[in-house]
Amino acid sequence: MTTLIHEWKLQLLQYSRNIRLFLLFNFVWNLGIGMFGLVYNLYVKSMGYEQTMVGHLVGMTAIASAIVLIPAGILNDKFGPKRVIPFGLFCVLAALTARSLLVGEHALTATAFLGGGCICSASTSRLRCSQA
User: Fold this and answer.
1) What pLDDT is attached to residue 21?
2) Which sequence ranges are marked TM in the entry (predicted)?
3) DSSP per position, 33-98
4) What is the pTM of this model?
5) Of 55, 57, 67, 124, which is closest to residue 95 (Cα–Cα)?
6) Would you state the pLDDT for residue 55?
7) Reduced to 3 states, what is the DSSP secondary structure of residue 112?
8) Weakly modelled stretches of the chain, pLDDT under 50
9) Which of 11, 22, 64, 87 is deepest in the core (most CB within 10 A)?
10) Which pLDDT score is estimated for 31?
11) Residue boundaries of the structural domains of the chain
């Protein structure tokens, strides 16, 4: 096991600084989004909503991601990832904050849709930026 970790460390050090920063950012980003998703579902359940409401919120997030994916790619091509990524990250921050603060059923559904679209647009831009 120690040999495996040592080999990974040596391989990681061979990458350029930009690649290492990109990998670090993606690790932190996905860790944060994953933790938010888990804790948020438990939070909604603790507010007294049924399990089906949690399913509706997860579904709305997925539907928004599917709808926003192509327009986000087009915007990314038109304006470039260096402009779209900060905007997308700001939108994600605003959407996740709204999801955490609002408690009504319709507000939760709307912010789940908004959050899914924002996360998708930010992720699409980051993916495109890594390929450039």
Assistant:
1) 87
2) 21-43, 55-75, 84-102
3) HHHHHHHHHHHHHHTT--HHHHHHHHHHHHHHHHHHHHHHHHHHHHH-HHHHHHHHHHHHHHHHHH
4) 0.79
5) 57
6) 94
7) helix
8) none
9) 64
10) 93
11) 25-131
